[in-house]
Amino acid sequence: MFELENVSKVFSGVAAITDLDLSIEAGRTTVFIGPSGCGKSTLIRMLMGLIIPESGVVRFEGQPVTAASALEQRRHMGYVIQGGGLFPHLTARGNAALMARYLGWPENKIAARAVELAEITHLPTDLLDRYPIQLSGGQRQRVALMRALMLDPEVLLLDEPFGALDPMVRDKLQTELREIFRDLGKTVVVVTQDIAEAAYLGDVIVLLRDGRIVQRGTIGELVNHPAEDFVGQFISAQRTLMDTLKDGAS
Ligand code: ADP
Ligand code: MG
Prior knowledge:
Number of helices: 10
Bound molecules: adenosine-5'-diphosphate, magnesium ion
Low-confidence stretches: none
């Protein structure tokens, strides 16, 4: 679905992505994981052509993603930005319908699609006319997901979709989201900082550090055949925290 070749991006002298090669397979869930600032959001934005690399090429379904082509290519991609990014002055329905309205869909088609998506994302339809401030964090994320799914894109790109949620809501949404991914058969890219979430959602995990890929593989490959010390350190850092908490509790 995506091919990245020798891709680099520098922000005012700081390398965000360095000489990166990656292919992302269709119909599967790929997870970008790594420490804060390692380039996960930059990478997901490059897939959409929101950031154009200084060197190298990003291809979507074989076609280079350029400033000129990105707008059309982006119609095949649904994006949930880090933090959700709902417009506060639009209702849930208005947020979800944004792209469809822009493309001139008739209102009855938009209304029908909104109900369909509320069902898929398990958002009660009576919440569709509320503003984001009148919704819980979990409900807002469902609306952000509805917005991303509105045009029935082949690709779904989610940047830390559970970042700000409390653990119970997060757990529930993770479970539901995995079912949604399976049912819809989309190509999905998810950014997370949580290794358990990566293991749960990802068919393929891409571990990044300082704008480079440390390892790409299944969770089993990362755990059993770490490419370098950092892989084990990253995984066990989160596991150690859990063990410490368990020890403290017993
Ligand atoms: P992550 O999502 O993994 O936390 P980002 O992709 O947001 O990381 O950022 C990667 C690096 O690029 C960081 O050092 C960040 O400060 C820098 N960066 C990202 N976006 C910009 C920008 N628009 N301007 C300047 N620096 C940026
Ligand atoms: Mg980020």
